[in-house]
Design goal:
single chain, 162 residues, alpha+beta, Arc Repressor Mutant, subunit A, Dna Ligase, domain 1, 2 domains, 3-stranded antiparallel sheet, 3-stranded mixed sheet, 6 helices, 6 strands, globular, binds zinc ion
Length: 162
């Protein structure tokens, strides 16, 4: 039986074909890295270094062009968390809108919220601004649950020494 990754690659291949692009071995290697790191938010350089492990002869420009093509075809989304680095994020299949991000200001971890949760907000915007929403980017900046625990412990420790 084909793995879900192979099936996904097959679908991406079709998407490229429908726009008259080929899934060349280099492009496929790039797509595989993105699929293998689906939860991560890799920069072009990160993707390049990972593709290079399997394709030592590949150049950064090739990887970069592939990422731009995948962005154009809406297979990936280009995002920026305010650190000036463009990151590439695979779009979830079948999701009408882009997922949300929780960026931890303590450890830098990025968590994803797949549920849209914006139904009511979108209704108000569409009605009051007569604006048809196609998509959105939402990034929350705060302290993640991992650091939150640490923070509380630190506080407790300090209290104990006071
Ligand atoms: Zn994401
Ligand atoms: Zn939405
Ligand atoms: Zn954190």
């Amino acid at each position: 039986m084909e793995s879900s990754m192979e099936k996904r690659i097959e679908r991406i291949k079709k998407q490229l074909h429908s726009q008259s692009y080929k899934l060349t071995p280099q492009r496929e290697a790039t797509v595989r890295v993105l699929l293998e790191h689906e939860e991560d938010h890799l920069s072009a350089e990160d993707v390049y270094l990972l593709v290079k492990e399997k394709y030592p002869e590949i150049g950064l420009a090739t990887v970069y062009r592939t990422l731009e093509l995948l962005t154009e075809l809406k297979i990936v989304d280009k995002i920026n968390f305010g650190d000036g680095v463009a990151r590439y994020d695979l779009r979830k299949e079948g999701a009408a809108h882009f997922h949300h991000h929780l960026v931890c200001m303590e450890c830098g971890a990025v968590d994803e919220v797949q549920e849209d949760l914006l139904g009511e907000v979108e209704k108000i915007i569409e009605k009051d601004w007569n604006f048809k929403i196609k998509d959105h980017r939402l990034t929350f900046h705060g302290v993640c649950h991992r650091c939150h625990g640490k923070e509380a412990k630190e506080k407790y420790k300090n209290l104990a020494f006071e």
